Amino acid sequence: MNMVWHLLWKDIRSLRMVVMFWLGWIFLQTMVEAWVPAIIGRPVLWTTYQMVSMAGPILQFVLLLVLIPLVIHQDPTVDARAFWLTRPISRKTLLVSKLGFMGLIVILPVLLGEIIVLACNGIAGRNLLLAVPEILLIVLCRLSIIGVLAMLTANFARFAIAVVSYFVAIKIVGFLMSIFSAGLFGYGHDAADSLLSVSMMQSRDVVASVATILVGCCLLSWQYLTRKTTVSVIMAIMGALGIMTLQSAWHLDFLKGQERAPAVASVNPDSVSLSIANIEPKKTPPFGSRKYQAFNLAFNLNGIPQDRTVEVVDGNMTFTRSNGHSLRGNAIGLDASAFSLDGHVAVNCPGLWNAVEADVGKFRVLNFNPGSTTSNMELNAQFTTTDSGDYAQYVGERATVSGEVRLNLSEYRRAGAAPLKTGACLVAEASRDRVINISCNIPTRDILLRKQTVSLLFAGQEKSGTLDNRMNSMMRRMMPWTDSEYLLLNRKRGNEVVRCESVSPDDLLYMMTMSIRMWKPNRLDYVDLKLDFPELSDEWLKDAELVCFKKSSLGSFKKTFAMKDFLMPKAGNNPKGAATPAWVGTVSPAGNVSTNVALDQGASSTNQ
Known about the structure:
- With 608 residues, this protein is α+β, with helices and mostly antiparallel strands.
- It has helices spanning 2-14, 16-34, 43-73, 91-120, 126-151, 156-185, 189-195, 198-226, 229-249, 350-360, 467-478, 508-514, 538-542; strands at 273-281, 294-302, 309-321, 326-332, 364-365, 378-385, 398-419, 425-428, 431-441, 444-454, 484-490, 496-499, 502-505, 524-534, 545-567, 583-586.
- Strands 1, 2, 3, 4, 5, 6, 7, 11, 12, 15 and 16 form an eleven-stranded mixed β-sheet that branches. Strands 8-9-10-14-13 form a five-stranded antiparallel β-sheet, with no helix packed on it.
- The chain starts with a helix and ends in a 22-residue tail after the last strand.
């Protein structure tokens, strides 16, 4: 044991400058990220945090690529310089000293730093304990790969070449295996769907990481105890291929989590009617191809309870002329805002207003569009033609419009509320939305929020039942502002409500940091959101309360639509439909919405 400590101290003393820089950076990164809740509203400190948060994960990885090879190359296991074999030092002793260096200088500081960061940002109890294996898994996996490559090379230059070769080979082999894996392992359609689920990808990553750690430990032990370099290289290549094969073949989704319970009030798709209210072609930009035409399509929707919200997830559309020629188009979108009519998808909003009424009682919307009502059940979606045919050939003719859309059923629930004051915090489960600025920007005012999101691998969060909802969950983690609606409420003025016009990232640096979050052990992110609302008096705002309503999916189903004898318009004509009423068909439900429950006829909204 004395010899192990002697060798360990020898390595630390020899590499003291690199070790001090490594520990100093871990300390700085930990302190900056742990103090985030205390620097809300302090621009200089927040800028410092952003710089450290962006540079920290990459610099950590770069330092590992320098530190670990230098430690191992102090007593190399290959080449003629491996003279430690002639010393009175056992091979096992040298192996233990190197592993001790990694554990004491690398693993322990990173683990303590990440735990401190999570604890200071409100993560405690069971979730904090579950973060420990996630952190260890990521750090040990990186150490295993770097350690094996360093062990099989004689100096840092050869190590750099080995690293580049390894990652290039992994990318090439991984791409080839992704093409042939389904055929090799006989997966069917259901299995192919499950491969795209977030939990399945996470389960595969965990299995691959554990296998990498085991293979790395075995290779390190083998080379240090035998010094059979050729055999070690062959074993390393076979191990890498085996790990990739295991990852591709793994089909047990042990991180799936608990399925969401069926909704209390469901919708029978057969009772829902969908008809075309209007189709308006959009003007093609000068730089765009005139053969590909975008359409704003409005649907009349009936049969949905007023306490539910419906959005168009995706769909397809076909224009068929009397001579049989047709033009196809499609629509696709994820989680549009309840107040947005932009992009590919839009939703009806009664579900939100009924959730507000259930929470605060009767209310009055101050800035609602007088041309519509809060019980409006009109759906809007944008379709774009996908055929190479020219839309101009259809203008002025009558055609049959038919297609299919997939509708997502959702509900809103209040997730948090706080006085409209700088520093106020809306606490909602594992997220905290802090008001950091209230400014005037005539004719609107702005609220700047700092939204914290936490996603832990082993936390066992609820999973939605369908593939599309799983993909939506992944998108919400990348864009945490898409599933929330913010309102201003003034109870002292008779429950007057003002809706926020838009919710968007205020800081482009967030989009840059999202691309490097894969380097960071924990999943703790902050993003600035900018809320715009019409100008109000300071007297009104003094008593205002900021309220957040979060949308959760209840399932999805498909509906078909068709309209005969529709006059194909030019862009900007804004036509109002055809002479023949539309007929409606139904497709089997695609999600977890019950088809054998009677339609819940929700009460009509009385909000004006």
